[in-house]
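Today's session is about reading a structure prediction critically. Students often jump straight to the picture, but the first step is always the sequence itself: look for stretches that repeat, for charged clusters, for runs of hydrophobic residues. Only then move on to the predicted structure, which in these notes is written as discrete structure tokens rather than atom positions. Here is the chain we will use throughout the hour.
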Amino acid sequence: MGPIEKLVLALKKLPGIGEKSATRLAYSITRWSKDDALQLAMAVTEVKEKVKFCAECSNLAEGDVCSICCDSRRDKTLVCVVEEPQDVQAIEKTGSFHGVYHVLHGALSPLDGIGPDEIGIEALFARLKIGRIRELIIATNPTTSGEATALYISKFAKPFGAKLTRIAFGIPFGGDIEYVDRSTLARSIEHRSNLT
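Below is the predicted structure for this chain, in token form.
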């Protein structure tokens, strides 16, 4: 297998990149300067070496704890549960949320073999058991998997005594949080509703 074919195979592993897009990207990279190509390779290597999951919330972090969990101005009793790190960034861009997060790294999908053990639900329940969470905002995507995850969390989180809320639905069903415009997402956070 030649270098272009290897690059196409590697690029196809990226989400949303199929054979044609990967091939187009690979041929585009062949036109780059060697410095630009090395810069891309070094950026990918640096991400893999330096970025890990936050010990508190499972968001992406360059140290043991992410910058949000380290921020003393954040309300640590207010926790927003999201599916992916991209969702944290989308909510942060609204400037309307001042609590902390819990990143699940997925959503329940029994048909795909994704149960509670495959995502960060147990770590969330461990945080709830400590008893420092006043409100748990469930901000999973408005999809079948996101709804199933929200229902599962609400069912098992009730005994811990935290207030349970779900973000409001200005977000279309089947959409992803990371692609929603800022004002819609801000309204969804501000007008969240009780689950109990």
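Discussion point for the tutorial: The chain has two domains: 3-50, 71-194.
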